[in-house]
């Protein structure tokens, strides 16, 4: 019998990497979203999300920066702690920021340890094919989610936001996925790769694949939550489907609030306190 039952009657109180692996083994799609704060994390956890990623995409959607490269360990720790504390059930994964693991394996292991202690997260994620580093972090007792395909921390080296794994690069991507699995990664994100190769990798690997712009044959899907729910500004990436228009709701609510403040209809009697005189 499945440890999940029919998903309506039973659900683990806290998802671990073994549960995520079981979902792949049983053919159950894995849902993941980014989160950077306690409020969104709590809402997504209540909705039943499987994985919350505290991504360095916070640089863009929280701090309004043009790229992820400026994120620091302290910033990731602050955001990660907020999410982990607010969402005890989902598997919480925190990105290692750019500059925290590229120098050496020793640097990467130390950064992973510091981030796990500071956040209370369940795992870390790092970008690129780094089997030696993945192996070293796993040996230190920390689960690692790998990230292949388009890797935002390497946007300059990759020539911008370009689909990866096409043509001759197809086999290179396939072999990279095999190597991160062999190194001990418990899952791998496949970003902006052709759906055909993403599906082949997903079938070939024992560990789960989490797609973003990689078609629907991966074992799970992840989106930046502000993109998915219509809070982001400007044009969304092609691979994003907007499931809500939160920005319009907030805009309308703010306009109504301003209007009622100007009209002195807020606060009304029901929203005010009184100190009536005694007879």
From TrEMBL:
What is the name of this protein? 3-methyl-2-oxobutanoate hydroxymethyltransferase
Cofactor note text: Binds 1 Mg(2+) ion per subunit.
Source organism (scientific name):
Corynebacterium pelargi
Job of this protein: Catalyzes the reversible reaction in which hydroxymethyl group from 5,10-methylenetetrahydrofolate is transferred onto alpha-ketoisovalerate to form ketopantoate.
Please write the reaction equations for the catalytic activity of this protein. (6R)-5,10-methylene-5,6,7,8-tetrahydrofolate + 3-methyl-2-oxobutanoate + H2O = 2-dehydropantoate + (6S)-5,6,7,8-tetrahydrofolate
- State a single Gene Ontology molecular function: magnesium ion binding
**Essential cofactor(s):** Mg(2+)
Q: Name one GO cellular component term.
A: cytoplasm
**Recorded E.C. number(s)?**
2.1.2.11
Subunit structure of this chain's protein: Homodecamer; pentamer of dimers.
**Gene3D superfamilies per UniProt:** Phosphoenolpyruvate-binding domains
Q: Which InterPro entries match?
A: Pantoate_hydroxy_MeTrfase, Pyrv/PenolPyrv_kinase-like_dom, Pyrv_kinase-like_dom_sf
Q: Where is the active site?
A: 191 (proton acceptor)
Q: HAMAP family recorded for this chain?
A: PanB
Biological process (GO) annotations? Answer: methylation; pantothenate biosynthetic process
The enzyme class is transferase
Q: Where Mg(2+) is bound, by residue? A: 56, 95, 127
Which pathway does the record list? Cofactor biosynthesis; (R)-pantothenate biosynthesis; (R)-pantoate from 3-methyl-2-oxobutanoate: step 1/2
The entry's localization annotation reads:
Cytoplasm
- Listed binding positions for 3-methyl-2-oxobutanoate are 56-57, 95, 125
